[in-house]
Amino acid sequence: MIKITDNEFLDFVQYMHKNFGIDLSKKRQLIEGRLSNMIERKGMKSFSEYMLNIKKNTKEEVSTLINKLTTNYTYFYREENHFKYLQEVILPYEEKTNKLKTINIWSAGCSSGEEPYTIAMVADDYFKYKKQDWKIQIIATDISQDVLAKAEEALYMEESLKLLPESYKKRYFIKEKDKYRINLDIKKQVTFKTFNLMENISEKNKYNVIFCRNVMIYFNTETKLGLVNRFYEATKPEGHLMIGHAETVQRGQTKFKYICPAIYKKE
Ligand SMILES: C[S@@+](CC[C@H](N)C(=O)[O-])C[C@H]1O[C@@H](n2cnc3c(N)ncnc32)[C@H](O)[C@@H]1O
Predict the structure, then answer these.
(1) Which domain holds residue 112?
(2) Gap between the Cα atoms of 35 and 157, Å rounded
(3) Cα–Cα 20 to 30 A to 200, which of 71, 194, 206, 219?
(4) What is the pTM of this model?
């Protein structure tokens, strides 16, 4: 097994933090454990050689690296109180006040698509036949091309649908052997794109809701705060930010107002 030297480890940690916000300073074993076989298989002799390759390499290589070091684990209707809040508070508010009838939602760190598709289902369930009067745009982004390819394929194992209300399962999926495919109406509501959350966010005051859940677990406090501030600029006044329940945003350090666990608002 190829070992990582102290210098290689420092270099690797700095590179991952600077470029992707991912804090691996306490993950030496994980880095070695998850990467050394792959490095060997590529015919390389050391972490330095691999790093040289990564630094000048394609998005695909980088995507594989991130996949190896982070988890893409996700499922439909995860942390349901966000979806209930969307259905019971946010969408009724938009229906009453949104004269342009346009709703922009961003699923940032969407993994294989279960989160943005759940959002599309909730919006469909809320508006029902009135949906055709509305422009509901769901943008879903992730740094990993592998998970985005899965999201585009839109074919899921039953396991992933376990928490989804039965009526959603019936209405929004087509069964294909032992798997479930998202129906076309829901699928076309979501646009997937590659995006690294460490980059500048050019849209200002655009999103009615941003979901960024179970992504910031990898980021240190400073990186997290920087991202939350960029989300703030990108959110419309009266818009919301949803984070994972295991995550925290330091209250008082962001302009978002705390509403309830894992839900924040731009006032
Ligand atoms: C555990 S999944 C979360 C999926 C979904 N939001 C949920 O809560 O179930 C975390 C995702 O964040 C993505 N990610 C990690 N760092 C990122 C970055 N710097 N920019 C964009 N996406 C990132 C990973 O590729 C992974 O797909």
Answers:
(1) 80-265
(2) 28
(3) 71
(4) 0.94
Query: What pLDDT score was predicted for residue 253?
Result: 86
Determine the atom of ligand 1 nearest the C-alpha atom of 78: 9
- Residue 66 is predicted with a pLDDT of 87
Ligand 1 pocket, residue 64 CB under 6 Å: no
pLDDT tens, residue by residue, 206-256: 999 999 999 998 898 899 999 999 999 999 999 999 999 999 888 788 999
Question: CA-to-CA distance for 47 and 8, rounded, in angstroms?
Answer: 6
CB atoms within 10 A of CB 233: 15
Instruction: Categorize the per-residue pLDDT at 56 as very low, low, confident or very high, splitting at 50, 70 and 90.
Output: confident
* 115 and 20 fall within a common domain: no
- The confidence band for 123, taking pLDDT boundaries of 50, 70 and 90, is very high
CATH classification of the domain holding 215: 3.40.50.150
At residue 167, what are phi and psi to the nearest 5 degrees? -65, -35
CA of residue 133 to ligand 1 center, whole Å: 32
| DSSP letter, residue 207 | E
Question: b/e map of 188-215 (b: 16 or more CB within 10 Å)?
Answer: ebbebeebebbeebeeeebbbbbbbbbb
Provide the domain count of the chain.
2
Q: Are residues 55 and 109 in the same domain?
A: no
**Substitution candidate for ligand 1 out of 18, 19, 75, 143 with most atoms within 8 A of CB:** 143
